[in-house]
Amino acid sequence: MKSAINTKIQWLEFALSQLVKYGPERLKIAPLCDAKGVTKGSFYHHFKNRQAFIDALMEHWYQEMTIDFIRQANSQDTPLQRLEKLDQVIAGTDIEAEMHIRAWALKDKSIASHLEKIDQQRQNYLSQCYVQLGLEETLASDIAMIGYANFLGMQQLYPKPDAETVKRLAALAFSKFIKEIY
Predict the structure, then answer these.
(1) pLDDT of 130-141, one tens digit each?
(2) For 81, what's the count of Cα atoms within 13 Å in the CB-facing half-sphere?
(3) What residues in the chain have per-residue pLDDT under 70?
(4) Cα(13)–Cα(7) distance, integer angstroms
(5) Which of 11, 32, 71, 77 pairs with 20 at a CA distance of 20 to 30 A?
């Protein structure tokens, strides 16, 4: 059973790499199988159909890039440490698929619905940290949305800011918000 799980995860990781390199058109069954050098039977061994595959792909990406990031941040004791850890985890991770998934969501409503869940989870986490720092809930939600929008916007810049610049700017923006409030 474990090898089947690993193989399924390998399919999902392969699909993410194909998405980044070639776009969502490559994530159809035949092109994926051709690129992977396997038969369609291999695909259907793990996925009932393309939509089941897409749902599994988005769930896998959600677990890896949202739930796992939050788990790592929660290893810290204070909300400020958790926010700093989250910035470190994000800055130290290849998140290029994020931009490709967001572009894909412009044309595919099922992807957009997955992003709604993911974006809400991420903003809720940030907001919870800000509330734990003493901010009122509405203000915490507003700052979470601004911070999250900043994160998404930085992914669109060319040239892309390096990890240290992203961390520095996130800390600067956060410190300005906190200074204004206190």
Answers:
(1) 999 999 999 999
(2) 6
(3) 1-6, 177-182
(4) 10
(5) 71
